[in-house]
Design brief:
The structure is a homodimer of 347-residue chains. Chain A is of the alpha/beta class. Chain A has 14 helices and twelve strands. In chain A, the strands form three sheets. A six-stranded parallel beta sheet of chain A has the order 2-1-3-4-5-11, with helices on both faces. A four-stranded parallel beta sheet of chain A has the order 7-6-8-9, sandwiched between helices. In chain A, β1, α5 and β2 form a beta-alpha-beta unit. In chain A, α11 crosses α12. The termini of chain A are far apart. At the A-B interface, α4, α5, β2, α6 and α12 of A face α4, α5, β2, α6 and α12 of B. Chain A binds a DNA duplex (30 and 30 nucleotides) through α2 and α4. Chains A, B: This is LacI family DNA-binding transcriptional regulator. Chains A, B: Pfam families: LacI, Peripla_BP_3.
Chain lengths: 347, 347
DNA sequence: ATAGGAATTGACAACGCTGTCAACAAGAAA
DNA sequence: TTTCTTGTTGACAGCGTTGTCAATTCCTAT
């Protein structure tokens, strides 16, 4: 192995010599520890500048028992979603400014094995903390492993009722809002394409819809068809095809995310069913695809980027030892009305 | 800072004691070094298993002067593209099995400052190698920095004529194929929505189209309108609107990627121009969006996932010191004919 | 048997940093 | 002034690995 690296990077020793202080003092400056006189601080900082010194992460990690690494853990299956890339960007934004590097670690989600895979990653890589998205975030055994190993983490999910360190929107309320909007337009025959069953947020959305319908006095049995989806465009296609074969076309379809809603529009288009005049279609998330469909999707906007940023912020605070006062945070969502919804025919 | 980590992970010393050998021998086993007897190897492996030992990356990194980290470097602007997520998955697939962790590092691409940002990352994080995508991969100064610091890397881009360590398809040839297909259908009035100008692959695609047209004896001045895009859906929308105001509607629009093609279809739809009977629209890449548009896009399929996997493979070999024989590899692409293209009207 | 060489193993010193603790300096209180 | 307190600094011992090199064992060919 030939290191053709000509200009070896400066070490802390070089800086110390250059500034005429001990390496420990340089270390203090680098780590922003208190009790360094202004004069020394200036000297050291000048030396750091002029040598263009950057601490060696491995050495730092070894000595301080930490890795300066934060892992984003998510389901391989969702790797292509705009949700995931938004999470990545939000987390990166905070982590990089806080001095952490970001590792991505998609795992093939499977209720039974997910915790084993996670444990392997933790033992091997030892990140200082993790940001976890659904459905991984919603698996009980994942939390067990994390707690046993004492690794801090924050989840992007509504979590259960007593869940801690979760960042989310109020999915139930948002879905309720969306459904109420459709009810106000005069809709009464609904179909809902629900998402991944292990995804707590997805169930919450379903609950919200039901709640709104019950509040409007509509018996669910007669007014709501439920079809299982898997969060993807393709599953939205399948679900809608199934719906069409059932023969009982609703006036409004609510898909629990935008990909599935786009799939629904696609199928309706194929069958010459007009959106929205024959059927209104609504999605959830305000992903880019919501603006790419024809007509554009009415949906719920979820500030994923901000939520991810905030989750990272929370995690970094935790790592610094500052137990944050609020450990469960809800962002607010917004109903975005576009062209895929209108009052039902004959009203 | 309280470490609530109860069961401290086993160290190499624990394994050595448990197996009754020296730590150096354990190290040999872990690193698959030669010259370890079968008996010792078994003993050590048993000990590793039973203690569930995983080497400490920081310590390994410090001692061996490497970080076991590979960075994927890309343009922030493209962070949401399916291209990027495909690259991530492809790279991860190989890296994880080769014992590397994958860091993501989007940088805001800007010709002038990109090399400074890169240098910062390299000094701070010291990844063992990088995988770089366009347009970052196509910036001259990026290569300079990398070579000065002696950090190995592989680019996913056709690169220049004498470029080394590049993995790509033959973009020019692929575009030529696509254009020839349209020519064979009878088209002669074209518009091309070109992509990011710093993107070598994009220019190659433009070249391929021109080449095919010239070969067909069509003077470019009269038969080809060129509009600038920026690789995004939105830029495809803008470009197409501009095209429409120019008043001279072609019979076929070729966008240099699928996002822009989807934008074009969107605008044509708004203007009640039928695709494909009024205008054929073709894209490039076979991104998921190509199947989500209505009608679905005729496009060129590029095996991004495989290319990324291969790029990672190449990089890892380089890191292992095996200078690979082929340092520039071309994958083959495929013309995917879908519903967005047909013979022009009146033929 | 016996020298010569190869295969196998271990002792020990890095690697670049942080934590601990002790030493010292500078004020503050007496 | 003396003593105590607080603030500032540095010496030194790790942190858990790998690289070097020497020691030992095991063959193979005389």
């Amino acid at each position: 192995m030939n290191r053709n690296n000509i200009n070896k990077p400066a070490t802390i020793t070089d800086v110390a010599r250059h500034a005429g202080v001990s390496i420990k003092t340089v270390s203090r400056v680098v780590n922003k520890e208190p009790n360094v006189s202004q004069a020394t601080l200036d000297k050291v900082q000048t030396a750091i500048e002029s040598l263009n010194y950057r601490p060696n992460m491995s050495a730092r990690g070894l000595a301080a028992q930490r890795s300066f690494l934060i892992t984003i853990l998510y389901d391989t299956y969702l790797a292509h979603s705009s949700y995931t890339s938004n999470v990545q960007l939000g987390v990166l934004k905070h982590c990089n400014q806080a001095g952490y590097e970001v590792l991505i670690h998609p795992i093939e989600y499977d209720k039974a094995t997910v915790s084993k895979r996670l444990e392997q990653h933790l033992k091997r890589t030892r990140p200082d903390g993790l940001i976890i998205t659904p459905p991984v975030a919603d698996a009980q055994n994942v939390h067990q492993v994390l707690n046993e190993l004492g690794t801090p983490y924050v989840c992007l999910s509504p979590g259960g009722p007593q869940a801690d360190n979760f960042v989310s929107i109020d999915d139930e309320k948002a879905a309720q809002d969306l459904c109420e909007y459709l009810l106000a337009l005069g809709h009464s025959q609904f179909a809902v394409i629900v998402g991944h069953p292990d995804h707590i947020a997805m169930s919450a959305r379903e609950k919200g819809i039901k709640k709104a319908m019950r509040a409007a006095g509509l018996p669910l049995g007669k007014h709501l068809q439920k079809i299982q989806g898997k969060n993807t465009f393709h599953s939205g296609v399948e679900a809608t095809e199934k719906l069409l074969t059932q023969g009982n076309l609703p006036t409004a379809i609510i898909a629990c995310n935008d990909e599935m809603a786009a799939g629904a529009i696609h199928v309706l288009h194929q069958h010459n069913i007009d959106v929205p005049s024959d059927v209104s279609v609504c999605g959830f998330d305000d992903a880019p695809i919501a603006e790419h469909t024809w007509p554009q999707l009415t949906t719920i906007r979820q500030p994923v980027h901000q939520m991810a940023f905030h989750a990272a912020e929370l995690l970094v605070e935790k790592l610094a030892g500052n137990a944050s006062p609020k450990s469960r945070i809800e962002f607010s969502s917004e109903l975005i009305i576009r062209a895929s919804s209108c009052a039902p025919k004959g009203l």
